[in-house]
Amino acid sequence: MRVLKELCRQPAAVFGLVIVLAVVIAAIAAPWLAPYAPDNQMFEGLTLEGAPMPPGEDFLLGTDTLGRDLLSRLLYGARTSLIIGLVANGVAVAIGLFVGVTAGYMRGWVGGTMMRFTDLMMAFPALLLAIVLAAILKPSLWIVAMVIALVNWVQVARIVYTETRGLVERDFIMAERALGAGNARIVLRHVLPHLVPTAIVWGTLGIATTVLLEATLSFLGIGVQPPEPSWGNIIFESQSYFQAAPWLVFFPGAVILLTALAFNLVGDALRDILDPTQRGRG
Amino acid sequence: MTSHQAAPVLSVRNLSVDARTPEGLKRILDGVSFDLAAGETLCLAGESGSGKSVTSLAIMGLLPKASLKVSSGEIRLEDRNILGIPHRALRKIRGGDIAMIFQEPMTSLNPVMTIGDQMVEAIREHREDISEGAQAIARAMLDAVHMSEAPRRLKQYPHELSGGMRQRVMIAMALSCRPKVLIADEPTTALDVTVQAQILTLMRELRREFSTSILMITHDMGVVAEMADRVAIMQQGRIVEAGDALDIFARPAEPYTRQLLAAVPRLGAHAGTDGPPRLTQAEAPPAERPILAVKDLSVTYGARAGWFNRSRIAPATVSDISFVLKAGETLGLVGESGSGKSTTGKAVLNLIPFEGSVSIDGRETRGLKSAAMRPVRRVAQMIFQDPYASLDPRMTVGAAIAEPLVIHGVGNASERQDRVAALLRRVGMPPDAGSRYPHEFSGGQRQRICIARALALEPKLIVADESVAALDVSVRARVLDLMLELQEQMGLAYLFISHDMAVIEKMSHHVAVMRGGRIVEIGPRRQVFEAPADAYTRNLMAAVPIPDPARYRMARSG
Q1: Which of residues 53-82 of A touch B (CB under 8 A)?
Q2: pLDDT tens digits for B13-25?
Q3: Diameter of chain A by CA atoms?
Q4: Whose C-alpha in A37, A105, B197, B233 is 20 to 30 A from the C-alpha of A126?
Q5: DSSP string over B166-178
Q6: B67 in a domain, yes or no?
Q7: What CDD domains does its record include (chain A) (predicted)?
Q8: Structural domain contains residue B556
Q9: What tens digit of pLDDT does each residue of B214-256 get?
């Protein structure tokens, strides 16, 4: 409750919160909000020459090359992209935290092995790995989310590892050990809370990256399968029409940008609010 | 020495500086005025936050503009106001007319440039007439600060030199342009006491040789006594008292000055007694039982080798240390940096792997894992040097003090809460402190919190590692008194680790002097301090600055 109240005191955070809520509502209420079915290829949706319709009265944001309503596709696409952005990214941050903290805290050969494996994953082309994984497993929304998580945890692990190593050297961890605290308590109560800012920043920054990675996978035909819309595959399906029908790229692009920005703003505000050393200042 | 009549080289008039805070401007320097005569040494003395460093930065034009702002005043170098003059003109003055040396000689030198290159650069910056001779001047300056093998030193990098040598290089650089004023901001605080004595002697010598005026900033009244012709005592952004060093030390007029001088621990103040002063009526513990017995303790760092790490064989940091500490007594472990005293403290509490035998309250701790060690940790606790670093910044003070109780499963939530409140009262903190965070407290208060946390389990032994080194003198005296009181009331034994001879003298029953990882002398305090057997112990004691300027004046004129 306190967190929410303090969030509401920062205009930027409120702006972000409103957009995040709007996207969530759009995703949930898509069937009621959308004027058309997302995969309905309408005859009226194309001009006489067969080109997509620009934004107008019947189609608020215009139509795509198959005569489908862009607004409806964006609303339904919010479902896919939110799931990808939150789940894939959440899992990636969780794996990264686990690997980074374990390796950074244990050091020794366990930590060494874990970090060398992380380096290996980092050196391995992420897209190739995603293609291989997606080809082995049958592509579906959840599989795509998992593939993205398995590719994206690496950077988080690397950063968390470095931070953990620094934390473990600090006096208050030594003081905890002198008090007789076990490893589990030290990690859960004294190391993890200090990694919350990193996790939040990565969690929010990563949303844009994952949405775009999903788009790339879709483009290669191993992402979310058409006709199911996602913000990424809407852009990629229409990129060759960019000059003739700029709205097909502009609107989904703007939606991705705004969503990513909104999550970032909320994340930044959350990080400050959750940091007790910032309390009573400024 | 009495050049007060001559026109001052540097004159500060009514200098006020404001800090920009979210609540608006806050005055941190309030109408500071002083004069520095030619060839004179003026010490600005005060505790942390008194504004002494801000004053020196203002003179150098180095105030961080984003957070601090000069609101009024004048700084005159000879006859010219240098406050607020353009950057180009200021650069000529900085390093040319006014030079500065800092506390930390390692971070003030560029680690990727040789000593010679850095000195030549500094010399060329201000003496355009010299292009060929800069190297020669650099060498002559190193000779002047008594660096042996000057030609070789010029080719070395800062990390190849010791702390004392680096500070000599800094002084050589500062004096190479023959400045009129040398500002020295805590120049010896980071150095060992024997090195400090050498650097102070050097500065006195150079002042005469180069006829430079010195503005010295320090918190250490011993250093003030050794260096100052005149003293200005600062408190909360004002100069509360200024005058001749002899007068101020002999007849301090202001209550704050008196309090400051009284708080300075003096070596030899407890001569003729066997133990620390008694502060309470509590009876001395009768049992002569050893609480800590250490035998042939050795610690070697970096011997561990992993799959992916290169193995390194390092020499032992601590070797063959043996001592016994009885309940209710204090063993002072004294030595300079790198002597292995902190390592010994950590090994005693099994926080680092060691060889040999450590037995606490009759239990051998070597090789005990975290869980097996837990009962021993109820008996033996630690207080660290930096109270802020040793408290988790994301935890309230109450939670931090309750932490040992939770770890050892003592009491339920409400019992713990009562216990925390009682502990806070015990160390002289308000009970509502429990719900606040460490950053909201001052250094002395934080150390009280750390003491409360260490006391939570009612231990019998406390290892105090430089526990008052980070505190101001007046705060330090009160924390030491608190520790003595607790010892008398609770029968605590302290392993008291410090580099400060005067603090060790005040606190200890027995003293062990360490050097290079070994104990060179150990015995009852009275014997070690009043009749030191080892030459190193005698050196260490002779190097401690004594807060009595009269002694130095006599020594210098004699």
Answers
A1: none
A2: 999 999 887 778 8
A3: 80
A4: A105
A5: HHHHHHHHHHTT-
A6: yes
A7: TM_PBP2
A8: no
A9: 999 998 888 898 889 999 999 988 999 999 988 999 899 999 9
